[in-house]
């Protein structure tokens, strides 16, 4: 039998061969994503790499639908016949995670806790033209808070939105990106929609106006005027659109979200920006993006309160964001924030905080206001004095390292019930806040509890050292 | 605009929705795969999820080619037209890793060190009928040693084969699977082929005989005889085939591999089995499988010395194996070897041994024979006396924990050059074996070296404790 002739193949356009050095860089990015998610009490999930194509027709929008990689079984005569007949295949390589996530939640909505906090780190596929920052296969981190308990009020939704914006901000800090490198810009699609409607602009032109807002910062006054003419706006209406940009959104959900988030994020990294629209058709209210200079979006997300119902589940509020590895990797390179050599190997050797270090509860209404700030402080850690001189992957940057902290979603103040919930999460310590400035700590492994009050400022240190002896 | 009607979607047949609990189980499996690979000095890589379909036509064999999931860009008029025209798509979702790996090695053969030790943990796709142990999307761990230096001798190839078989055995031990749960069965396709030829059986019927050997253990003598008739074997030839089974393979590469491996694996888990054939067309010599009772193959691999040349690279010896997550997960469940609850969270919190703990070198020829055994001992760790009563994920099972150990592939005894290589791998310690029973240890971070000899039996403890003070 003659030997086959040698053939040379390359990776398909827009995909990557990850040799060991490039794979370490990907691991660094995905390790940070996982570590930050776990610390914030999110559970990891995953779904199929391909889905029924129809799943994306529900709400993903034309941008995504036009760029699907389609797939079919080459073993199935029926599928082959259908593809030959229609030019369309029954499956699509996932272009994004939200439809899978919504489908998975809808299928088990009755059994799942409310809310669930889910994250995933998976690969995605879009048949767009490859260019800097865009590939046809890429990784994405997704994090979502789905299914608030009861009839979620605007305040409860804002709290879930803020939880995600804070986690996004913490992830950027973990990569060493500061407020001067990039800002998180938030907006509310509903509020902007109402403002546009109030200018007497019909629903049929609202999408054009959103696109004008999206491009606003990159246009000079002449270009804005020309574009306004094209889409049929009067001079008064253009002035009205300009006023939306100028006074930003200083009321409603955006204000509530910014107030909540800025109280928990150390630097002023969160601000309103009515030009943030997001391309996906399923967003219903809050939308946000992390944007670096050069207007590169590193991450984006928003609230999609209708999608789970559209996929056969009960009406379910939901909010989430996604961050891709390509723009982020370029940005870390540009800023000198990607470790290499021994630094890289050590950065990748850190343990993952899978088990909760602390489950924080309040024993009375007065103490309850301290739960969210203490949880945020535990998750963030305390920087050492010389932190600014240290690299982001250097553990010595922290006087007290960031911890995995969780809290209850229940309204009860019954400490017995809440301690039971702490055990169900396998938390190492339960932190019971008893007054606005002190707590007791229970070591759930050793079944030992502090007898003298622990000042809230000392909780992180005691939990981190796994040492309650000063308070027993 | 009327609201769209709710639609209900399920995951495509044979794929999985991984809710948090199932995702933890997958993480447990992939964490063990990664940890064992890293300890054995393998570097992680990855490739595209889909490849040009032609890549699999080179040597994957009809079994795989018939079960490809095909993919195309739904944005490309040319690709859509081609699919409509031919019923075949330009891309295939990867059904296995070896062709990608061989393509990647071939593309950089000149720059890469010889050999490379590469591993990957990726998802794969086959359009086969889903059943217990088989899914249409699954995970697989691949590990390969590619490109031995110089003209590799049979002995050098056997050493690379043994390295992989030993790592496979260590991974099974890490999962808590013992020699009584499953054995690694090895064979040499070339030797068996020669034995078949010597019986006067033509090349055209050799494949049929290999299939008969594959099914041998499951058939009674009557069924064997009937099958032999069908494929045109005489009674004498059938007796000859039986003799291949009976005397196994007690010479050549299989013997060499077993001798090398059994010296390094604690229990007798490796044995010859001429019925091991493996379905893939690219195997050229050694083949092996890890088979549990019920004849379920948990892992399999072999030598593919021609594939890289067929993909445009230089002639390159290569050997590797793969282990899937589905059969393995079922087996761990059946044996009670899958952690749950707090055990699971703690098992997943362990640090990954990305940085080498030790780089082992020999300062003279007499000491050189100790390198491989010491490296194997460091990687395996030392069990505590009460290990049999402990779960596989319990760190207290070890008196000295398993370490990440590497060694040079170079023949030189120049200690200066070898220490330089240790530094290039960012090893924490260099272990310089100086006699058949002692070494000196250099702390490469502190730049301090032992002055009194360290007995080889004490090396693992000193490196593991990161404490050389007793020998300074």
Main β-sheet, spatial strand arrangement of chain A: 1-5-6-11-10-9-7-8
Low-confidence stretches of chain A: none
Distance between the termini of chain A: 81 Å
Q: Whole-number radius of gyration of chain A?
A: 24 Å
Work out the helix count of chain A.
Answer: 18
By oligomeric state, this entry counts as homodimer
User: In percent terms, what proportion of residues of chain A is strand?
Assistant: 15-25%
Name the largest protein-protein interface in this structure.
A-B, 85 and 85 residues
Query: Mean pLDDT of chain A, rounded to whole units?
Result: 92
Largest sheet of chain A: 8 strands, mixed
CATH H-level homologous superfamily name of the domain at 355-472 in chain A: Anticodon-binding domain
Question: What is the name of the CATH topology of the domain at 355-472 in chain A?
Answer: Rossmann fold
Q: From the 3D coordinates, which CATH architecture of the domain at 355-472 in chain A would you assign?
A: 3-Layer(aba) Sandwich
What structural category characterises the helix and strand content of chain A?
A: alpha+beta
Question: What is the number of beta strands of chain A?
Answer: 19
Shape of chain A: globular
CATH class assignment of the domain at 355-472 in chain A: Alpha Beta
Percent in helix of chain A? 25-40%
